[in-house]
Amino acid sequence: MGMLRLDSEMLPKLSWLAFVAASVIWIIRWHAKRMRSRWKGEKILIVDDDALTRDMVRASLRHEGFQVREAEDGREALRLLRQEHIHLVILNRAMANPDGIQARLKRGTRIPIILLSAKGEGDSAAGRTAGAAEGAAKPFNPAALVARVKAQLRR
User: Fold this and answer.
1) Across residues 14-34, what is the average pLDDT?
2) How many Cβ atoms are within 10 Å of 1's Cβ, its own excluded?
3) Which are the contacts of 118, defined by CB distance < 8 A and separation ≥ 6?
4) Residue 7 — very low, low, confident or very high, per pLDDT cuts 50/70/90?
5) What residue segments make up the domains of the chain, in order of their start?
6) The dihedral formed by the CA atoms of 135, 140, 142 and 148, expressed in degrees to the nearest 10
7) What is the pLDDT of residue 110?
8) CB count, 10 Å around CB of 114?
9) Domain 40-154 class, CATH top level
10) Beta bridge partners of 69
């Protein structure tokens, strides 16, 4: 049993195969980079009093190319909404200190809202009827939340 011998007829075929494989890899990387850069400039505001939740959501969104702003309470969120052009808000429904952020967002804005709720899907459905575009129950899958954000921004 000997080694595989490369004759002069096989060499052009192998270099063509290597070229095709390298091209496919380049196209995949280019497409992934293009899809991530599609969301550059889209600002997402995360309003949650739980730092761990904010960190997890921020990391997931930044990985996809979003700009992320964070607020620990409703007062800080209202300040950011006045100062910056926010494209979407991810809001914890049961924050300890909402300071009117939910009423403000429901009343006078066209910014899509995704409500996070620890109470389950029923509470998320109630949030949608209260003016939120989407609802997500905690614990949630970060990839699924990012998919919901993208879907809202495409509308």
Assistant:
1) 73
2) 2
3) 94, 137, 138
4) low
5) 9-38, 40-154
6) -20
7) 79
8) 25
9) alpha beta
10) 45
